[in-house]
Structure formats: structure tokens, C-alpha cells
Amino acid sequence: MHIAIAGNIGAGKTTLTNLLSKHYGWKPHFEDVEENPYLLDFYDEMQRWSFNLQVYYLNSRSTQIQDIKKSEQTIIQDRTIYEDAYIFAPNLHSMGLMTTRDFENYFSLFNLLESFISAPDLLIYLRAGVPKLVENIQSRGRDYEESIRLDYLKRLNERYEAWISTYDKGKLLIIDVENVNFKDSPEDLGKVIQQIDAELHGLF
């Protein structure tokens, strides 16, 4: 099975991926942050590096999905290929940080790759307001994230909500991170696990 966690920067995707992989014995696939050769440059000069970064993610995540397909284990994935295509790339384009030519080129690549991949069996969306995202981003202290602007997070949140409202590729579970502290509260994590169990039982 393929489980995926979606959500804005700082929503708690990596934390929940870790917790669920330990609880269920699932194999985690994380977003490639440390090895990403474009991320630091992108946050320093978004317009120059936006296309390079998005193509890197497209390649990285499509490779991940191929590995997931071949695996006999249940995989839990930190962020999906859809978020790049429907959230991040269009947002960069609308902000004037990616040219129309580059965006159209990127999206044609995504459409081609999407025809070869399958959607997750369950998509878990972590919903959080901008203040909560900022709090989480500051608490983890990644240097390259210090320059992320509030209006950037707000725009991403709006696109996430628009995408999730029309998501129809498979089962969807929405978790409101404002009211659930799965990181520090075993009770809250237990409630999340109960919701996931309820969704997964419907897969069989």
C-alpha cells in the first residue's frame, strides 16, 4: 500500500510520517531536503531557481513513486508529486517567480509522468493556519526557511485548500493540525491512528 501525507511547509508532515512509520511498521519515504542541490539557492533567489527546483522535485518524486510501486512493503510518503504540480509551481508562476514558458514546460512534463503513476491508496492532508505553520517552522530552525514570507505561506494555503476540495484520486483523510497535537500528545496521536484505521479498513 501507498500512504501519502500532504500539507504546507511546517504542517507536520515529516513528524507524522515518522510517528506512523514506527506505529505501523511502514517504510518511510522522506522529502529530499538535505541532498537537494537547489533549495538553498531557491530561497535566496526564487526567480532564478524556481524552474530548476520544481523539475528536480518532479524527477525525485516520480522516482520515489516507481520505487513504491515495486515495493512489497507499505510505504508512507512525506509530500506528494501533486503538491508540486498543483500548489508550488502554479504559485511561483502567479507570483511572477516562474515564467509562463517554464511553467508550461514543467506542467507538460508533469502530465507525461502522471500518466505512468498511480495515486496513493490514502492521502492524509494536514490542515494548518499560517500562525501555526510559522510557529512550527521557527521551532525546527532550518536556516533556509527563515526567509519564507507570510504572504508566501498564505498563498500556498489557499492553493492547498482549493486542491483538496476537488481531490478525487483516492481516499482522503483531513487532519486539522490546529486542534491535534500528535507530536506531543499520545492521546491525539491515538485519535489520528483511529481515523487512519477507519479509512484503511475500507480499502479491503
Global mean pLDDT: 90
Radius of gyration: 17 Å
The geometry reads as: globular
- CATH architecture descriptor name: 3-Layer(aba) Sandwich
Biggest pleated sheet: 5 strands, parallel
As laid out across the biggest beta sheet, the strand order is 2-3-1-4-5
**Class per helix and strand makeup:** alpha/beta
How do the SSEs run, as a string of H and E? EHEHHEHHEHHEH
Query: Which band does the percent of strand residues land in?
Result: 5-15%
Task: Provide a descriptive summary of the structure in words.
By secondary structure, this protein is an alpha/beta fold. The protein has a single domain, classed as P-loop containing nucleotide triphosphate hydrolases (Rossmann fold). The protein has helices spanning 13-24, 39-44, 46-70, 81-94, 100-114, 130-140, 150-165, 186-201; strands spanning 2-7, 27-29, 75-78, 122-127, 171-176. The protein has a 5-stranded parallel beta sheet, sandwiched between helices. Helix 3 packs parallel to helix 5, helix 4 (81-94) packs antiparallel against helix 5 and helix 4 packs across helix 7. The longest helix has 25 residues, at 46-70. The chain is globular.
